[in-house]
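User: Can you predict the 3D structure for this chain?
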Amino acid sequence: MKQLTKRLAILLLAIVMMLAVTACGGSGETAADNGTGTEGTDQSGDVGAEGTEQSGESAGPATAAEGEKIINIGVTDSLGGVNPFAIDQTEINKYALDLMFLPLMELDKDLNFQGMLADSITTEDNINFIVHVDDKATWSDGTPVTAYDVEYSVMRYASPIVANTTLLLYAFEGTDDETGFLEEGADSMAGLTVLDDKTIQFTSKYPMALTTFQNSYARYLHVLPKHIIEKFSESELASNDWFNHPDVINGPYFMTGYDADHYISYSANTNYWKGAPKIDKLNIRIVDGSQIYAGLQSGEIDITQHTMTAIPQEDYESIEALNNVKVVYGSPVTNQSAFIQTANIPDARVRQALVYAIDRQQLVDQLLKGHGEVVDGFLSSASPFFDASVEPMEYNPEKAKELLAEAGWDGSQTLRFYVNSGDNTFVNGAQVIAAQWAAVGINAEITTVDLATLMTVAGTTDYDIMAVQYTYAPVDPYPDVSWLLGGEGSWTGYYNDEVAAALDGTQQTSNVSEIKDFYSVVNRKMQEDAAMFSVYVISAQGAVSNRVSGAEPSVYGFFNDVHNWDVTE
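Assistant: Here is the predicted structure, written as structure tokens:
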């Protein structure tokens, strides 16, 4: 299980970290991506709804012709690229691809799995997973989407020549345990079996919960048209220009142009098998967070979405006061986590004191304007596995002092406290925390660095405490939690047999109550051993214009039914 744990968590870090850092304040700064899309330049070739290339170059976001309907989505993330074989699937990259190439499944706003390209995924043994492609699914040229498209796509993701690390398919039979790749030149994969034109079986090397398969693989597997791209060699796939203007898709929108730092434009796929979109053109506009309020006010931005848009906290009340938009606060899923390197702070009493010394509710009230919650451990109230009986450790500076005295803490040590400079809200919060620690006799030196540098530091033990926003998937926190508590080499350096057994238990059952009990063991051990703690969990702001119907910002499922969105002028 350790292989599954560690490698799968690395996958999620590429996704989760990017999602998390944009959820609250700051500049939306992200770590360097591996994209090979042409950044800062427009992509020529406007692809129409019928998949034929239109003449001329798009000079900017699409504008509506007379009688056309258009929606502008404001985000603060930058696009890494549009080639699924060449990018890490950060939140904005995933959304950009989802509009063209549906994932197998997606979570809806209520955290239920909704079929996208697949209409069902089942398992009887947590080893073999049966995926059925929707019988109605077709490509935009009318060709049926089949299990052979799924097989072909997975084989290309697993190719050592393509060398894509997004899906990390090491968990499935036939792939290398470390790299997740097949042998060069392989024409089959032991962990993939096409059962019929619409059904394919995935076979794992290890027990895996159905939710783990759905959340970590089905949500990120973009199926590509075998009959179109099989003409390209594997060495061409990661850089082929076809992905800059794909003319055959299975999703609701063709991409008509993009500039990685400014916009992505789309036009409706009128042959979309779930129904032709009501919105003719759609733009994702990439702007600075300080521009969101003005854009919503003027109507230049119709929607902002929680996980791709960092609205400054100081603008929340101004946006709430606008009479042309509806404000929506997302579920509390983005955790401002603090990871303690236990090799450097080995005494659990000192680590507990760090938690008792912080008035976390004060931080929620002052920094988040009350839009958040205090929890202990990894799970927020948004998770089906949340145990409300695990009450957060209270603010108790006297208790902190007692624990420090018991541990023989003399105050001579200065703790190295690393914080993401791109998260302006928590940069301020770190100052408050350091002052509260100082009040009980703990000296901390705050170092603010950009996210890329923070991730470099995280790969060492050259810190005592590191704070970063981290979104643990509410329906499947296992890969992240098991890696973070995976002993030497993890962000905590912490390992405990009881915790490891509980985490393994989550993968052996699909019973929600049983899984909840296992996570309760983990979270109670975190109170006891304090290898990490949650400073707060954020409920980020989103907004939608009153002229838009059928669309509501949500942490998950935002684009699931985009073909049903509409506008009234």
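The chain has two domains: 22-274+546-567, 334-538. The domain at 334-538 is CATH 3.10.105.10 (Dipeptide-binding Protein; domain 3).
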